[in-house]
TrEMBL record, chains A, B, C, D:
Pfam families: 4HBT. This is PaaI family thioesterase. Coiled coil: none annotated. Gene3D superfamilies: Hotdog Thioesterase. One of its GO terms (molecular function) is hydrolase activity. It is an enzyme of class 3 (hydrolase). Belongs to the thioesterase PaaI family. It comes from Streptomyces solicathayae. PANTHER family: ACYL-COENZYME A THIOESTERASE 13, THIOESTERASE SUPERFAMILY MEMBER-RELATED. Its EC number is 3.1.2.-. The keyword Hydrolase applies. InterPro entries: ACOT13, HotDog_dom_sf, PAAI_dom, Thioestr_dom.
Length: 125, 125, 125, 125
């Protein structure tokens, strides 16, 4: 995430926001953020959202996700929102949304997904 | 849908509800509705939700869907809700939710999905 | 599955075939098998394929699946093939294929999917 | 892709390979490639595989994909393989595989996915 220039902007129980500025490193020739970066922040937002529900000995790993790229990911920055739909001792399911946000705050849904995560106890604990 | 005993209970712009009573034909030995029937009403709810946004010469076909089966599909009946996330001239994306509803109205999310549909002009028109 | 008229036609380690005759109960007005029935046999084929790898105290449940409906599901019968891509003590991932098969044996891929299953130890054992 | 250090290593009709060396920029503390980079090369491999089937006025865009992360993405490099399952004038469906490859050539499937793409005619043509 650091490599992409993304940062966590909200952490609540079962919900996390990640912001990714539309810097040249993550955009293509038309100024839109690459699908790969869009997906990566969505996946991360879901993972952190799940993590908020577990104790510090737990890690979560993405089992799978599915994402629809709904519109070109334009704007000043992207905001990915991960929301836990169904927490579980073993498996957790999250909804993933990514918005393109303009400098004036106008928002557009650019990607929507769904993700399954597995909780694992950190090795050595 | 008729074969399963399902019926449309709500039709609004971009949103459709389908109810499936938990009859013996669609339940397994534990009284839960089969995953196949749960998925079928979710898929149909999304398809009809998309159809509400198009004129009468249009049909929609499911390109693909993904569904998480979150909990045993128990209750008096299931309610599937299809909601259009992103309409389009060619492709439409819907969110799919299925709730298990008890006789007293208590509801539980039993499945959640995401679906891509394509609009086609009805042959001969 | 019995309700749909489907039957297991091949069971090998990590691979199961299910055949569904195109009877009127599962076809629509154009003679194609409904997407719901196509998906149901795909999901079942994956579940049984996973089950072949575990001992008799184990059950498997579908966590989620994603399916692309590639072509109208026509023919004399459908054949669903579930193949384990990655077995696991907790989670197993399967590939799902459904072919439309003509009376003369000609085959066409009508649906393709991917499925995640979880192994559970049968209650009371 | 350039940003990640990936390169195309095979281009055939309906099939493309992409190799991503496991450089520090794309690996986490345990030496495994990040899920985001794994998914990005899988998505790209499918997109290029579809592109091989169309004329030079066509572009393809990812509509959606689903990916299972099957194992830690370790090895000397990753190889993503995109294969067209079903080409189409409007929509194309691809299978996505990612292997972790050791220095001695040993291979392990680390991710498997499925992708839907739409063909668009390049603006201005």
């Amino acid at each position: 995430m650091t490599h992409l220039g993304a940062r966590l902007t909200h952490i609540g129980p079962g919900r996390v926001h990640i912001v990714l500025p539309a810097r040249p490193e993550v955009t293509q020739q038309h100024g839109y953020v690459h699908a790969g970066a869009t997906s990566a922040i969505a996946d991360s937002a879901g993972g952190y959202a799940a993590l908020t529900l577990f104790d510090e000995d737990s890690e979560v790993r993405t089992v799978e996700y599915k994402i629809n790229l709904l519109a070109p990911a334009g704007g000043d920055h992207l905001e990915a929102i991960g929301t836990v739909l169904k927490p579980g001792r073993t498996l957790t399911v999250c909804q993933l949304e990514v918005y393109g946000v303009q400098g004036d705050g106008a928002r557009k849904l650019v990607a929507n997904g769904q993700q399954t995560l597995i909780r694992v106890v950190r090795p050595g604990q």
